[in-house]
Amino acid sequence: MSNIRDWQVVEARKLRDLELAELIELVEQGLQLDLTVLFNGMMLSGKVISGTKYYEILAENFDNLNQPLSTYFSSVGLQRYANQDEKEEPLLNFIHFEDVRIQIGSNQLMNLPGQPCRVKLEEINGHFHGLMSTNGK
């Protein structure tokens, strides 16, 4: 009997919430949606935006600060989202947010105005519709 074990390469993927994936596809087509997601022990809340808008915001944010970075984000947005052939599957690997709120402690929210956020879809453990708030704010 040999002490050498045969190793096999196993490809594993986390499960995706199909409803959430469908909602993201609708956002890419123009739906407006406020959503709170749970992932990696955190809660994140905000307005779900298209991939195109995510890259547009990044390009605008860096326009006066770092022109090469602004150009890069603009180019990436066009390549990955704006010029997509209608016959291709939509890019549903990430969900994009703006006007983000992140829960950082018990009833404490950190607001990130003007900063878009990108989260891997397969990392999301759950979601609910609407924005989270504390003390009615």
Question: What is this structure's SSE topology?
Answer:
Blueprint: H1 18-28, E1 33-39, E2 42-49, H2 51-62, H3 67-82, E3 94-105, E4 108-112, E5 117-120, E6 124-129
Antiparallel strand pairs: 1-2, 1-6, 2-3, 3-4, 3-5
Helix pairs in contact: 2-3
Your description of this structure?
The chain is of the alpha+beta class and 137 residues long. It has one domain (18-129): SH3 type barrels (Roll). The chain is 28% helix and 31% strand. It contains three helices and six strands, in the order H-E-E-H-H-E-E-E-E. The protein has helices at 18-28, 51-62, 67-82; strands at residues 33-39, 42-49, 94-105, 108-112, 117-120, 124-129. Strands 1, 2, 3, 4, 5 and 6 form a six-stranded antiparallel β-sheet that branches. The radius of gyration is 18 Å and the shape is globular. The N and C termini lie far apart (68 Å).
Q: What is the H-and-E element order?
A: HEEHHEEEE
* Span of the ends, CA to CA: 68 Å
Which geometry do the CA atoms define?
globular
Query: Count of DSSP helices?
Result: 3
Enumerate the spans where pLDDT stays under 50 for 5 or more consecutive residues: none
Helix content: 25-40%
How many structural domains? 1
| CATH-defined fold name | SH3 type barrels
- Give me the count of strands: 6
